Amino acid sequence: MKTSLFLASLLFVSTIATPAALSHRSCNKPIVRREWRRLSADERLDYLTAVQCILIKPPLTPTDVAPGVGARYDDFVATHIAQTFSIHYVGHFLPWHRYFTAVYEKALREECGYTGAQPYWDWTLDVTPSSKFVQSPVWDPVTGFGGNGPFIETDPSDPFSVPGRTGGGCVEDGPFQNMTVRMGPGADVSGNPRCLSRDFSPYFAGRYLGKNVTDYTLSQSNFGWFTRVVEGAPSFDASGIHGGGHFGVGGTLGEMGDLYNSPSDPIFYLHHANLDRIWWSWQHEDPVQRLNDISGPIFIMDYDNVQGGNVTLASPLSVGVNAPDVVVGDVMNIRGGALCYVYDRLH
Ligand SMILES: *[C@@H]1O[C@H](CO)[C@@H](O)[C@H](O)[C@H]1NC(C)=O
Ligand SMILES: *[C@@H]1O[C@H](CO)[C@@H](O)[C@H](O)[C@H]1NC(C)=O
Ligand SMILES: *[C@@H]1O[C@H](CO)[C@@H](O)[C@H](O)[C@H]1NC(C)=O
Ligand SMILES: [Cu+2]
């Protein structure tokens, strides 16, 4: 049964794969994704310049779909918002975000003249001790993404109050100081122009982004548990590395802490590239098994399969206007199918 399903899905992949996926089938010269601090200062500036470019390029999303979309960058945010409840706490959480990040990387390269690969942020380098968090090179005002916003009081008894939050206001320095966020908050795509906010919690980052949590994540023996440990429970008391990055940076009031709207902060893509690298590192430990190991619910939080079955290699992935649809099997290997990149280092 298992074998025939697997063969069926392979057949499915090879017969209906999209032209885009087919054109990338041979991956002889993968681009190499590197950690932010291992790029030269010029390479960091090249990346930041490409982000400034996509922030002002005209959008592709039709106005009746998301009236507030004002730039090509927003196409990605609106796509994430539209699918929020079908791409988190599901089996295809990691495959979807892998494809989404690669498609963003492709847009920077093909539409904004960027010649490098998507960088990643290895937060384990910045959280021991947690006081180091604010000094990370990723927050540099010139060769990074700028830092925190000023502190804004919130009600600490609010269940959404992230423990240890220290900011909440508009980012005060760096290249995204004057960036206009239009999508969100939450599911709202009508257009709410405002500043980019961050609400750092060094405490939260220290608790979930240390090497110990990544090592625990990598010790899971199958994909079903691996992805559940990456996502953690939707609670501040039992987050995983995914929530660690989102709430460590976005806290309560920052874009990164908004499940829908988090791609509005350009650091989103460096966080997700690192999650992807950790998944790749896990796959690499047992490629024969793990390049095909996929499971987990089709429907959000449906871990007992009450509403439906599990995701398979044939399950569809859509990133909306940004690229052709693919299937999970097209993104299991970063050097094949719809993808063609590698990481400089495994975790
Ligand atoms: C942001 O806008 C303010 C006020 O117009 C200006 O002083 C500052 O230099 C701008 N910062 C960037 C990074 O463009
Ligand atoms: C990892 O270390 C942090 C900081 O000491 C701690 O709060 C957390 O509970 C540890 N987590 C695991 C899974 O070991
Ligand atoms: C779905 O996947 C989980 C592991 O992620 C597994 O334990 C469960 O048995 C699977 N359910 C079905 C219906 O195959
Ligand atoms: Cu997401």
TrEMBL record:
Gene3D superfamilies the record matches: Di-copper center containing domain from catechol oxidase
The keyword Metal-binding appears for this protein: yes
Residue ranges occupied by any Tyrosinase copper-binding domain in the UniProt entry: 88-105, 265-276
Record Pfam families: Tyrosinase
UniProt GO molecular function: metal ion binding; oxidoreductase activity
Keyword line: Copper, Metal-binding, Signal
Record PROSITE patterns: TYROSINASE_1, TYROSINASE_2
Signal peptide: 1-23
Protein name, entry field: Di-copper centre-containing protein
Lineage of the species this protein comes from: Eukaryota, Fungi, Dikarya, Basidiomycota, Agaricomycotina
